[in-house]
């Protein structure tokens, strides 16, 4: 029996969306602080947060940026034999170094992001395992050259205006997106210790885990855990991602855009996309189609209007292919089932 879609079991109320926005601003903010800013009780905030987590609407997770460790990130598109796409997508979603797995073209096309922590991991997957799989008919891989919106920038523009400027300031917002455009691969790369790996694994399971729980997982004191987590955040090795199920926000039409943009206008188009609420991810990539974007709209008609009248009208856009997502299998580090984060 398939899990019911998220919209069948829970519709977000305005207070829920305001709590999500507060978490976007500060993913580890205390419930008491959120309650004080929003004018509701701490217990109400905690109850609504836990209800959204149970319903598969929301997760706060710690994510390692492989670029900070000196590793590149790749967008991979697989064309599969009919009937085999789902199995390949599920197998890829089980891998720690693969994120954002989607199925399109009636289940015969798989798109994923490969964010391997080591070059050996990446080469094993892209150079050996996938090309040798009998169900894979074609593999196209493009390295990301520059991200325009990603990570903590997901849905930032979409939820702008949910809180008043005064509320956002009280929660620590600066008026800017928490995502910072910068080179994909940083030099020199950061190095991690064994306790770092344990800490990052604990935050990947729960980005809001208490310092006491993190200290127990790592064998460090709460003070050392706090200082090390802040150091990893400041260095860009770690970011705390507020993952949201698109269906919960009313997005039922999801698509991947492969755009060919004139090189002189690539940065301008990427930044224009990043400012649009429908765009969850945008990056310049290698290859003829040099801009990759993930977009969400309320329905197919709005997707048509968005792609033709707004994206297609941007100066420099030469061609655009729209690949409608039939199923989201994984978001960043979270599996998706029936539209629910699991």
UniProtKB/TrEMBL annotation:
This is Transcriptional regulator. GO terms for biological process: response to amino acid. PROSITE patterns: HTH_ASNC_2. One of its GO terms (cellular component) is cytosol. Residues 12-72 form the HTH asnC-type domain. Pfam families: AsnC_trans_reg, HTH_AsnC-type. One of its GO terms (molecular function) is sequence-specific DNA binding. Keywords: DNA-binding, Transcription, Transcription regulation.
């Amino acid at each position: 029996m398939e899990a019911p879609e998220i919209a069948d079991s829970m519709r977000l109320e305005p207070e829920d969306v305001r709590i999500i926005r507060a978490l976007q601003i500060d993913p580890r903010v205390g419930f008491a602080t959120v309650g004080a800013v929003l004018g509701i009780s701490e217990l109400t905030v905690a109850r609504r947060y836990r209800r959204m987590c149970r319903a598969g609407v929301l997760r706060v997770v710690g994510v390692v940026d492989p670029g900070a460790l000196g590793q590149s990130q790749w967008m991979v598109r697989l064309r599969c034999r009919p009937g085999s796409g789902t199995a390949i997508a599920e197998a890829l979603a089980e891998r720690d170094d693969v994120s954002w797995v989607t199925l399109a073209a009636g289940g015969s096309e798989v798109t994923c992001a490969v964010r391997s922590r080591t070059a050996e991991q990446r080469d094993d997957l892209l150079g050996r395992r996938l090309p040798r799989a009998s169900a894979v008919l074609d593999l196209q891989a493009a390295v990301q050259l520059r991200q325009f919106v990603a990570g903590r920038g997901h849905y930032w523009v979409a939820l702008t205006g949910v809180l008043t400027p005064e509320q956002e300031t009280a929660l620590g917002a600066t008026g800017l997106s928490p995502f910072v455009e910068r080179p994909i691969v940083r030099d020199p790369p950061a190095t991690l210790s064994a306790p770092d790996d344990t800490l990052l694994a604990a935050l990947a399971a729960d980005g809001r885990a208490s310092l006491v729980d993190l200290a127990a997982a790592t064998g460090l004191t709460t003070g050392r855990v706090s200082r090390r987590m802040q150091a990893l955040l400041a260095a860009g090795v770690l970011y705390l991602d507020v993952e949201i199920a698109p269906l919960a926000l009313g997005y039922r039409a999801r698509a991947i855009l492969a755009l060919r943009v004139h090189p002189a206008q690539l940065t301008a188009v990427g930044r224009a996309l990043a400012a649009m609420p429908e765009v969850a991810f945008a990056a310049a990539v290698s290859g003829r189609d040099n801009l990759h974007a993930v977009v969400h709209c309320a329905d197919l008609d709005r997707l048509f209007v968005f792609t033709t009248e707004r994206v297609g009208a941007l100066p420099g856009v030469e061609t655009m292919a729209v690949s409608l997502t039939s199923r989201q299998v994984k978001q960043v580090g979270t599996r998706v089932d029936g539209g629910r984060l699991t």
